[in-house]
Amino acid sequence: KQLRDSGKASTEQIKKASNATKQQRQAHQNLVEQYKKERATVKQLSDRHKELKGQNDKVKQSYKQSSAELKNTQNQHKKLNKEIQDYTKNQAEAVKKINNEKASLNNLEKAIEKTSKEMKLFNKEQALANSHFTKTADKFDKLSDSYSRFGMGLQSVGRNMSMYVTTP
């Protein structure tokens, strides 16, 4: 009986051991299947990570380039604003200088015109003074004055005659 009991016990232990082995084998197969799935998922995630890293590097490079271009554009904008501000100031100064130059030019033209007239008058006077006809011209001027007075007198006489003598 002991043997039987011990054989039953052994058979039962073998069955239990066999069931436990089957369960372990099934659990092991499940773990292997889960490991394969997880490994595939890790591979996919790794590939996706590499892809995203590449895209991230491209975005970083694009960001650096855009940032550099933005800084350059900002510097150009500042420079243009300064030029515009300076332009208004420089334009006002230029207008003031132009007006001053115009006034100077007008004054110079007036001075030249006055000097030219004086020079012509001086040359005329000099020519008359140096001429031997000056004395004769003076005599004719005096004679002209006396003839003018004589002519006025005759004109007055003629007027009186026509008004008083011929008028009834």
UniProtKB/TrEMBL annotation:
Gene3D superfamilies: 1.10.287.1490. Residues 8-32, 62-75 have a biased composition (Polar residues). It comes from the Bacteria. Residues 1-78 are annotated as: Disordered. Residues 34-60 have a biased composition (Basic and acidic residues). This is Phage tail tape measure protein. It comes from Flavobacterium circumlabens.
